[in-house]
Amino acid sequence: MPYEFRATRRVEFSDTDMAGIMHYSNFFRFMETAEHGFYRSLGFSVVMAETDPRLGWPRVHAECDYRKPLRFEDLVEIQLLVKERRTKSISYTFRFWKLNEDPRVEVARGLLTIVCVSHQPDGKMTSVPIPPEIAEKIEIAPATLLE
Amino acid sequence: MPYEFRATRRVEFSDTDMAGIMHYSNFFRFMETAEHGFYRSLGFSVVMAETDPRLGWPRVHAECDYRKPLRFEDLVEIQLLVKERRTKSISYTFRFWKLNEDPRVEVARGLLTIVCVSHQPDGKMTSVPIPPEIAEKIEIAPATLLE
Amino acid sequence: MPYEFRATRRVEFSDTDMAGIMHYSNFFRFMETAEHGFYRSLGFSVVMAETDPRLGWPRVHAECDYRKPLRFEDLVEIQLLVKERRTKSISYTFRFWKLNEDPRVEVARGLLTIVCVSHQPDGKMTSVPIPPEIAEKIEIAPATLLE
Amino acid sequence: MPYEFRATRRVEFSDTDMAGIMHYSNFFRFMETAEHGFYRSLGFSVVMAETDPRLGWPRVHAECDYRKPLRFEDLVEIQLLVKERRTKSISYTFRFWKLNEDPRVEVARGLLTIVCVSHQPDGKMTSVPIPPEIAEKIEIAPATLLE
Predict the structure, then answer these.
(1) Residue B123 distance to chain C (closest CA, Å)
(2) Which one of B15, B17, B52, B65 is the catalytic residue?
(3) How is D68-121 classified by DSSP, letter by letter?
(4) How confident is the model at residue C122 (pLDDT cuts 50, 70, 90)?
(5) Do C60 and D65 touch (CB under 8 A)?
(6) Considering CB atoms only, which of A19, A58, A69 is closest to B66?
(7) What does the angle CA A25 – CA A28 – CA A34 come to, to the nearest 5 degrees?
(8) What is the rounded CA–CA span in Å between residue C24 and residue B25?
(9) Chains near C, with 3+ CB pairs < 8 A?
């Protein structure tokens, strides 16, 4: 399904902070894990060294709502869902599911907007349309999954 | 001014990623640096080991808009501004200023909402009113600073 | 085999630095991933909340020799080997194997020494003998694996 | 003194782990903070984009001995001392001093060996002699400081 990807991670000791829970900044690292896994599942990598000029995918907006904490050794599924696809940018919703609880619980929900840019020889970045061979692979998730 | 705090950080090598810029998750670590410095400037610490029951300040919402990248050895000022203060929660705006550019540039803007909770003996957390000795020290920033 | 454990990780974007390779401090996070997985494979967790007094496993020595870099999306196996087991401490060797190269290459080798401590009510830690039910599960790896 | 540099850091919330102390991998990030500050104090940067071919300073060995934990908001001085300077490599000793204790306490001691390399057009790295304009600025610390 080219509108969804699921990555699983176990919360590690170095992901926790002295409050005994996963540090809030690490949810953003986990989102990226799912995002990059999604690209691999579509047959490409977020690092496009071979295009000329080189393409990049900087983040322009990131957010997260935290409902319940994650703790050391918790098993979490990061469910990526394509929320929007515009000419030059994509928005993803991320649902964090704590798997080691029955039924599984949604502990956090994130949002990431990335822009396709071209790296100019002078180091500057210009936003450019997402290449068609990538854009055509990415579908919008059904609204029911995003509620 | 009990509605503002400024922390300065130099972007370190370990803050960067292979795109050559500060990893987007690290802006959230920098926000917290300013937030905790703000509390110290008011005479207390985010870690309140001595209250009974113990109080905590979990984050319930975090977001960031990225306008320009930060690079290794850039000097950045994180300007915390109190955006809202409710009975049990506070929202902060964070403006990231790259200082080694003349005039200084706002490279990113963040938002953080934290809730005051009490840690129950059974490990559960309940949201509680912010203690008056803290609440009365925290003012709302003038709207002009938040534009 | 209670003297060995293998964990596999993919190098993530947030693990890299602006040199385009995994930041050297992250090899230590990966060692811990293997160490904690080793404990789980033996039926316990490094976090022993239920013992009284509570036991802990602080690190007293850590080192790493770097032979070749790891890059984004490299698949790495962290092979934990028990190097030494004393009354109150254990030393582990870690061999990092880059799997996406044929034949696989050892890119780094680490060493970690941990001590068993008891947390006193006053917050102090005292080194104590490793509990027999744990010690008896942990064997020394054959010397040939450590060469 | 071109054989010594002192950097000061406050332990941040995101530096701690669920054991309530600074995560052991972060001592290596702090070592690098002092190392890169040392280079700036000598008038150059560890990132040498303008040399041709481009020079780099990969780490080949890192280690740390942990004596006492660092906790949230502890103020720590990282004292860099040049331990050895060879034609193509440098070794640094790092002494971690907890400043918010009287008298100040050495809580950890680290070691880092870096090699000067040249980046070849094909992406390979070859070790090369440290450029004389850098080598001549770096002195060996007196043995008494390294005891």
Answers:
(1) 13
(2) B17
(3) S---TT-EEEEEEEEEEE-SSEEEEEEEEEE-SSSS-EEEEEEEEEEE-EEE-T
(4) confident
(5) yes
(6) A58
(7) 150
(8) 19
(9) A, B, D
For residue D20, is it left (φ>0), alpha (ψ between -120 and 50) or beta? Answer: left
Cβ–Cβ below 8 Å for D16 and A13: no
How many angstroms away from the CA of D14 is the closest CA of chain A?
A: 6
CB contact under 8 A, B73 and D14: no
User: Touching check for A47 and chain C: CB below 8 Å?
Assistant: yes
Does the beta carbon of C69 lie under 8 angstroms from any beta carbon of chain D?
Answer: yes
Q: What is d(CA B74, CA C18) in angstroms, rounded to the nearest whole number?
A: 14
Chain B residue numbers touching A62 (CB-CB < 8 A):
24, 63-64, 66
Secondary structure of residue A76 in the 3-state scheme: strand
Measured torsion, CA atoms of residues C63, C68, C73, C78, in degrees rounded to the nearest 10: -40
**Residue A26: pLDDT above 80?**
yes
* Structure ipTM: 0.95
Q: Do A24 and B64 touch (CB under 8 A)?
A: no
Name the nearest CA neighbour of D32 among D50, D51, D12, D58: D58
Any CB–CB contact under 8 A between B12 and chain D?
yes
* Amino acid identity, position C97: W
Chain-chain contact of B69 with A58 (C-beta, under 8 angstroms)? yes
Average per-residue pLDDT for chain B:
94
Q: How many CB pairs under 8 A join A and B?
A: 53
* Residue B17 a catalytic site member: yes
Distance, CA of C20 to CA of B26 (rounded, Å): 17
pLDDT digits (tens, 9 = 90+) for D44-87: 888 877 777 888 999 999 999 999 999 999 999 999 999 999 99
- Could you identify the residue written with the tokens 């068993």? C116
- Kindly give, in sequence order, each residue whose CB lies less than 8 Å from that of residue B127, ignoring residues fewer than 6 positions away: B88, B89, B115, B116, B117, B118
**Residue B74 corresponds to which tokens in the numbers above?**
């850039």
> Rounded distance, CA D41 to CA B73, Å?
13
Determine phi and psi for A28, rounding to 5 degrees: -75, -35
- Chain C, residues 20-39, CB within 8 A of chain D, namely 21, 24-26, 28-29, 32
Rounded to the nearest angstrom, the minimum Cα separation between D76 and chain C is 18
Spatial neighbors of A32 by CB under 8 A, at least 6 apart, are: A112, B25, C12, C13, C14
Alpha carbon C5 to its chain centroid, in Å, reads 9
- Our CA angle for A118, A122, A127, nearest 5°, is 25
Write the DSSP symbol of residue C42: T
The CA distance from D110 to A11, in Å, is 28
